[in-house]
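Course assignment 3, question 2. Fill in each field.
Student: A.L.
Task: Predict the tertiary structure for the chain below.
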Amino acid sequence: MSLRPVWRVQVVALAIILALVSVACESDSGLPPAEFEPGACPASVASLPALANASCGFLVVPESRTKFNGRRIRLPVAIIPSVSQPPPSEPIVHLTGGPGGDALAEAEFLVPAGLNQQRDLIIMAQRGTLDTEPELTCPEIDQFNARLVGLVYGADSTKAEHLAATRACHDRLVAEGIDLSAYNTTENAADFEDLRKVLGIEQWSLNGYSYGTYLALTLMRDYPETIRSAIIDSVVPPSVASLGWTWTNLGEAFDNLFRACADQPACKSEYGDVAATFASQVQQLEANPLTTTAQYAPDSPQVTVVLDGGALVNWLVAAGPAFTLVPSAIQELVEGDPKQIAAGRAALANPAGEGIFGYGLTYGVFCSEWIPFEPKSQILAQGRLAFPTYPDSVLSEAPQLPFETEDCAIWNVPRADPSIRDVTTSSIPTLVISGSFDAKTSPQWAEYAAMTLENSTRIVIPGFGHWVTPQEPCTQSVVRSFLSNPSVPPDTSCVAALTPPPFHTSE
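Answer field:
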């Protein structure tokens, strides 16, 4: 299906059009129509080289599409022109993760990965995130997370301080007149549909990672005729996303990681059974937490770091590109010098991250779409199945999402309609990507989602974690092949030759 002429005009002379025109799309709901207001790129990203040739503006939409006289919100948009001119293919829109991530800043990863080689690349900040109006960021929570590295992770006193930070942000946002119930996936998906309409695009392709895959699968289910193809990297299927399943994901990723060390003779010889060693350290530190110091950057001050069982597990979830150092870091811990692990935890204390994450969208999604559909008891039940030797005090809270059920009691948004969790069944050409070490969205979630995507190709990249595409050249090659002609299977031949990189050893 071809694009409407208006998009072809915008491709040729987009900067002029955005400078002169504000386009409104039709509304059949009785609400004021969505509008596009041209403007400068937000100051936080204006200097990024990837946005040097971008045209920017704001999508203006209702905060709540159920309230006819409610406030309007403004969502910044950047359109990065295709390298090929004129673009031979439909535009591609990027859906960031989180929920609550900083979408526009991710241009610096998307452009080098080649997403705009043959397409205009559209990036929009999701409602409530950085640079939107209003922003639902929570410096109160960021400041607590910086203190968290010096607290016992699962202690009652830590929980009390955590919930106080959540309440402080909640109360401030409510006092500002923000309707917290409007920050969810249903409204988020409608924002992107309005953006498509207001730009005059008949069809586009989707590129989502993490929560962005949850949003992409929602769009594919609810607006299938508007989507030419989709790339979903580090997949979160809406129909099964829950706090309990975070432990199941963790179990698969940790197994893959520790097995990869066992499969490398040098790693196995030097470190032995890393899984058993790690489990023993979780048990020991949960019983007797270790206090040390570390820096979050070479020139930063020393910060106090407390390592208990929960902190150790969460360090490994977030290990990221440092996976090759994991066995050596665990061995250092055994030997009483956990400098690598402490430095990883100390990164949370870096003030550079304060005020960036959109917690209003985070809680809006989790508290209406996840928490109401699973009893809290399932967190511990799933944790015990995945890690039968870990202490219950570690397993009773979801990794990286501690005290979320209690947070949601504070956030106090209504339960979503159960249809938000409907399975996405689709024939849209879809590339499904996972990293074998991804402890946040492990390959099993991608496998589950692909079962009902009849025209999908699934690849698992060994040795990589969350959001594979910007990190790995073979994946980028598969993405380029897929985007060149989504109607035929992409060339995945390079994947078969991949193995996890060698772990660091004394050799």
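Instructor remarks: The longest helix spans residues 156-175. The domain at 5-124+180-239+422-497 is CATH 3.40.50.1820 (Rossmann fold).
Grade: pending
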